[in-house]
Amino acid sequence: MPANKKYLSSPIQRLLKVTAAIIGGYLVTNALLLLLLHCFSRREVLITMKFMSYLVWVVLMVIAFLAKNGWKVWGWYLFACLLLLSPIIYTLLFR
Question: Which residue from 10, 34, 67, 85 lies 20 to 30 Å from 79 (Cα-Cα)?
Fold first, then answer.
């Protein structure tokens, strides 16, 4: 039995969701890691985030596929990257 057409997204939305899940989730995960490295001791953060980064990335992937609009997912992920990287950018510019 085929899926109901009203629940299927367009090919462009599917592409946006897949790219947001893989690339956007990876960018947000790395931005979080860089923020933690900036704020805390490097050794503890690297050991912790080696395992936690995969879990964060998977959660961000699931969130991307649960959304209805791929553009909004990309917008939220880029906003999260800028928000997480803003302390690092601030210290690099005004040091």
Answer: 10
Query: CB of 86 within 8 A of CB of 38?
Result: no
Residue 70 near residue 13, CB atoms below 8 Å = yes
Q: 45-54: list long-range contacts, CB under 8 Å, 24+ apart.
A: 53/29
- Show Cβ contacts of residue 13 under 8 Å, excluding neighbours closer than 6 positions: 68, 69, 70
Q: What is the pTM of this model?
A: 0.86
The full length of the chain comes to: 95
Give the Cα-Cα-Cα angle 93, 27, 90 (nearest 5 degrees).
Answer: 15
Q: What is the pLDDT along the chain (95 residues), one digit of tens a residue?
A: 567 777 677 889 999 999 999 999 999 999 999 998 888 877 877 888 888 889 999 999 999 999 989 999 999 999 999 999 999 999 999 98
